[in-house]
TrEMBL record:
Organism field: Elaeis guineensis var. tenera
UniProt entry tagged with the keyword Lyase: yes
Protein name according to UniProt: 1,4-dihydroxy-2-naphthoyl-CoA synthase
GO molecular function: 1,4-dihydroxy-2-naphthoyl-CoA synthase activity
One GO CC annotation: cytosol
EC number(s) from the headed UniProt entry: 4.1.3.36
Protein family (similarity comment): Belongs to the enoyl-CoA hydratase/isomerase family.
Residues of the full protein shown: 61 to 332 of 332
Length: 272
């Protein structure tokens, strides 16, 4: 459980199942219902970076320690006039960077939710590709109650998931919804008994891992492309380039350049 720099994580647990292709990242602040501080987010970003770069990893699980909470959002005790501040004299909203990282990560990220997924913790589960919920899960946005909001992905992705009316209800009323209500609203993929949560999540991981990694990579970027605008197209376009580089046609261009000759693309078809 190291971060690759030899330092142990304090706010998260990072595990990889050797030979299976699954990485599991657990927010480890159960005494605060897994509320995050800037340091927690920095560790999460490092772990997600590692899971992205590790070609043996095909699926990533994001979860919270214990059964009481997935994540209760930003640690309100550390909220300052310019974000959340822990060991620094200025505040940060670095959870927004983490949201973008999860969204652009070319591998599926599954939120495994037991207990509360509220506030910024609710947004984190929404930016994950899939959500497997325990029957004790509770979902909601508390922003309007505690004087906060997420006007980025927290609003736009929610509106896509549950529709514009329900999204307004969630944000304006700050209600909590149980797992079955969340499933009905389209917020989660499946609800299972708490004791089966991990087993069911692993089953979903293994089903994904049986499938083509490139197909999944392109599909993830395609499913996000319209909503993510230029950044979404760039992600999708990057995948086209990645695949094109593996063709003889692309290789002819590079080889010709290296051999200081004119490229000969005449043998490559101009497909209808
Ligand atoms: C999560 C919830 C509903 C759980 O309730 P319950 O009754 O199960 O537990 P309790 O007693 O409220 O919490 C246990 C301990 O965890 C702390 C509590 O203060 C308590 O501490 P002690 O009294 O034992 O010392 N705790 C829980 N959540 C915390 C938090 N977020 N920050 C700091 N301490 C927290 C209930 O605890 C709850 O409603 N929590 C607050 C949820 C919330 O409003 N989150 C912030 C939303 S804003 C946000 O996340 C955000 C954003 O809007 C935009 C950008 C970035 C972040």
């Amino acid at each position: 459980v190291c971060d690759g720099t030899g330092k142990e994580f304090t706010d998260i647990i990072y595990e990889k199942s050797v030979g299976e292709g699954i990485a599991k990242i657990t927010i480890n602040r159960p005494e605060r219902r897994n509320a995050f501080r800037p340091h927690t987010i920095k560790e999460l970003i490092r772990a997600f970076d590692d899971a992205r770069d590790d070609s043996t990893v095909g699926v990533i699980i994001l979860t919270g320690k214990g059964t009481k909470a997935f994540c209760s959002g930003g640690d309100q005790a550390l909220r300052s006039s310019d974000g959340y501040a822990d060991f620094e004299s200025f505040g940060r909203l670095n959870v927004l960077d983490l949201q973008v990282q999860i969204r652009r990560l070319p591998k599926p990220v599954i939120a495994m939710v037991a207990g509360y997924a509220v506030g910024g913790g609710h947004v984190l589960h929404m930016v994950c590709d899939l959500t497997v919920a325990a029957d004790n899960a509770v979902f909601g946005q508390t922003g309007a109650k505690v004087g906060s909001f997420d006007a980025g992905y927290g609003s736009s992705i929610m509106s896509r998931l549950v529709g514009p009316k329900k999204a307004r209800e969630m944000w304006f009323l700050s209600r909590f919804y149980n797992a079955y209500e969340a499933e009905k609203m389209g917020l989660v993929n499946v609800v299972v008994p708490l004791e089966k949560l991990e087993m069911e999540t692993l089953k979903w991981c293994r089903e994904i891992l049986r499938n083509s990694p490139t197909a999944i990579r392109v599909l993830k970027s395609a499913l996000n492309a319209v909503d993510d605008g230029h950044a979404g197209l760039q992600e999708l376009g990057g995948n086209a380039t990645l695949i094109f580089y593996g063709t003889k046609e692309a290789n002819e261009g590079k080889t010709a350049y290296m051999e200081r000759r004119r490229p000969d693309f005449s043998k490559f078809p101009r497909r209808p």
